[in-house]
Design goal:
CATH topology of the largest domain: Deoxyribonuclease I, Chain A
GO molecular function: catalytic activity
Organism: Pseudodonghicola xiamenensis
Radius of gyration: 20 Å
Structural class: alpha+beta
Pfam family, one: Exo_endo_phos
Keywords: Membrane, Transmembrane, Transmembrane helix
CATH architecture of the largest domain: 4-Layer Sandwich
Helix content: 25-40%
Number of domains: 2
Distance between the termini: 66 Å
Protein name: Endonuclease/exonuclease/phosphatase domain-containing protein
CATH superfamily of the largest domain: Endonuclease/exonuclease/phosphatase
Length: 296
């Protein structure tokens, strides 16, 4: 029994250390990877400490860590919408990782048409999935597809006309300027690699100068493969001068059918708007529909 109790104390200490490590993403990308598991680690450690009957031993650091871990979720649900500034215009963005081996594009195509967004951002547009772009070309004539990896590339579509010569491709990025009825905006689709030890940090370093060069209002949708409170998402937001919109919500199961994590995000200049999480429609990601308020 003493051995089990001692092992439990060691595990609890390791859990607290792991949660704390997740706050150090700005110091090293390895620590940013721990941020993905911050909430379940904090909750699991709390349960373990209660079982060990050691609440006073770790009450202060546990409360602080647990509050910091849960705060982005809780506060977002208390304030799920940012109010538009006077004179702002609404733009609707449909974000979806299609899954490179999507069996049938029909459900996705029908859902996009039914929701009538202004901009569509999709990832894993493999050769078979290019049928989605073809099927939507009449509704969304402005399209920019950029090849990326063996699973397919990102694409951005819009019902608004593209600014001639504005299409941009980068590693996991497809972007273009479009002429909205009230002004010109950048529409960007992103697909980031998995965090460290995978090459997401280096990929972001390549994307940052591209995003900084995009002057003006920006609307970004993507599979970030990282959670809302991660340094990876923060780096993209800083480079693009945007803010993440809407509440944090699980869009992907890791592993499939298991822990739900929110890794599909919409960012916009000003950060005002709301999101709705959609069905999977044959993919392993849920779609995200964002209603964004963009100031001219």
């Amino acid at each position: 029994m003493q051995l089990l109790r001692g092992l439990g104390v060691v595990l609890a200490g390791a859990g607290l250390a792991a949660v704390a490590a997740g706050f150090g993403g700005g110091l090293h990308p390895a620590l940013d990877s721990w941020a993905v598991f911050r909430v379940p680690l904090a909750l699991g450690t709390a349960v373990l400490l209660l079982v060990l009957r050691r609440p006073l031993w770790a009450v202060l650091p546990l409360v602080l860590l647990l509050a910091a871990a849960v705060a982005p979720r809780v506060l977002a649900h208390w304030h799920p919408e940012a109010e538009p500034v006077p004179g702002a215009h609404e733009a609707v963005l449909y974000q979806k990782n299609l899954l490179f081996r999507l069996k049938s594009p029909d459900q996705v195509v029908q859902d996009i048409r039914a929701r009538r967004p202004d901009v569509v951002t999709v990832q894993e547009v493999s050769r078979p999935n290019q049928a989605v772009l073809a099927a939507l070309r009449e509704d969304f004539p402005s399209q920019n597809f950029c090849d990326f990896r063996e699973v397919g590339g990102p694409a951005v579509l819009s019902r608004w006309p593209m600014v001639a010569g504005s299409a941009v491709c980068g590693p996991g990025l497809a972007a273009m300027q479009v002429k909205a009825p009230w002004g010109v905006i950048w529409a960007v689709s992103l697909h980031l690699r998995w965090p460290w030890p995978f090459p997401q940090p280096g990929q972001i370093s390549q994307l940052e100068p591209l995003l900084r060069d995009m002057r003006g209002i920006k609307l970004i949708g993507g599979d970030f493969n990282n959670v809302a409170w991660s340094e990876g998402v923060a780096r993209i937001a800083r480079a693009s001068d945007t803010k993440r919109i809407g509440h944090e919500a699980a869009t992907f199961a890791l592993p499939h059918g298991g822990l739900g994590v929110g890794i599909d995000h919409i960012l916009a200049t000003g950060g005002a708007g709301r999101v709705t999480v959609l069905d999977r429609l044959g993919s392993d990601h849920r779609g995200v529909l964002g209603r964004v308020f963009l100031a001219p």
